Amino acid sequence: MDFSNSANHIIVALDGMDPRQAIEFTAALPGLRRVKVGLELFMSGGSAVVEQLRHQGLAVFLDLKFHDIPATMAAACREAASFGADLITVHAAAGIEALAAAQQGAEEGAAVAGLQTPSLLAVTVLTSWDPLYFKEQLAISEPVDRYVHRLARLATVAGIAGCVCSPLEVASLRAAHPQPFVLITPGIRPIGCNKNDQQRVLSPSQALAAGASALVIGRPITKAEDPAKAFNECCRSIEEI
Predict the structure, then answer these.
(1) Could you tell me if residue 203 is inside a domain?
(2) Which residues does residue 38 pair with via DSSP β-bridges, in sequence order?
(3) What is the CATH number of the domain that holds 164?
(4) Is residue 148 part of a domain?
(5) What does the alpha-carbon distance between residue 122 and residue 162 come to, in Å, rounded to a whole number?
(6) Does 13 reside within a domain?
(7) How far is the C-alpha of 69 from the C-alpha of 74, rounded, in Å?
(8) Cis peptide, bond prior to residue 190, ω within 30 of zero
C-alpha cells in the first residue's frame, strides 16, 4: 500500500449508500484515493460497483468480513480478487487454516484475472464492542486487548498482510508487529464529531501517530454538510503529524 500522500491514508466508507449514490459521491470528492465497500453496498451493487469505483481510479477496500470453513473462504477470496478488490477482510477467528486458504484463494483469483494480489486483512474485535458486553455476551474472560493480540498472531502465522483493529489497540499491535504489517483502523472520529455506534475511537492524527497504516472514516465525511471540506480537513490533520 502506498502512503506517500496523506489522502492515501484515508479510506472513505461508503456505508448507507446505494450504487448510484456511491458513484456520484466519489466522483464529487476531489483527491479521494481509497473507498470502503461494505456488506450493504455490495449486496445492492455486487461486483459491478467495485468495478465502477475502480474505473474512477479508486482503490477498493472490500469489507465483507469472510468467516467460514477454509474451502469457502478460499473460494470467496478467489472471486473477490478476480474483480479487483485492493483490500479484503476476513475474520481472524476463522483460524489459521482458513486464513491461509483465503490468502491462497486471493492469490489464485488475482493471477487468473491478471491483477495484483490484494492484501488480506484479518478482523480482530469489532470496534462496536464495549469491553463489558464483550465479556458478558461472548463469555470470553480474556480482556479485549489480549484477545486482539491473540487473533493478530493467527494472522501473522497464516501469512495475512495485516489486521483491522480498534485505534486503541494500534500502538500495542504496532509494537508487536512492525511494518510492513498493515494496521487498518475504523472507529476514527475527528475531534468534536459524534461517536455514533463506535465505542473505541481516536482522531485521525492520534491513530496514525500510534502506528496505524490507514484509517476508515465514514459518517464524519459522508454525512458532513460539505463532504469535500471534511475530507480535506482530515487530510490536513494528518499532514500536521
Answers:
(1) yes
(2) 63
(3) 3.20.20.70
(4) yes
(5) 6
(6) yes
(7) 9
(8) no
Within a domain: 1: no
Residues 42, 48: Cα–Cα separation, whole Å = 9
Please give the chain's pLDDT, 241 residues, in tens: 665 578 899 999 999 999 999 999 999 999 999 999 999 999 999 999 999 999 999 999 999 999 999 999 999 999 999 999 999 999 999 999 999 999 999 999 999 999 999 999 999 988 788 889 999 999 999 998 899 999 999 999 999 999 998 888 899 999 999 999 999 998 787 655 554 444 445 788 888 999 999 999 999 999 999 999 999 999 988 876 5
Domain span including residue 135 = 6-239
The single-letter code of the amino acid at 190 is: P
* 135 noted as active-site residue: no
In the set 36, 65, 223, 229, the catalytic residue is: 65
pTM, rounded to two decimals: 0.91
Collapsing DSSP states into helix, strand and coil, what is residue 114? Answer: coil
How far, in Å, CA of 110 to CA of 117, rounded? Answer: 5
Residue 202 is classified by DSSP as B
Domain count, the chain: 1
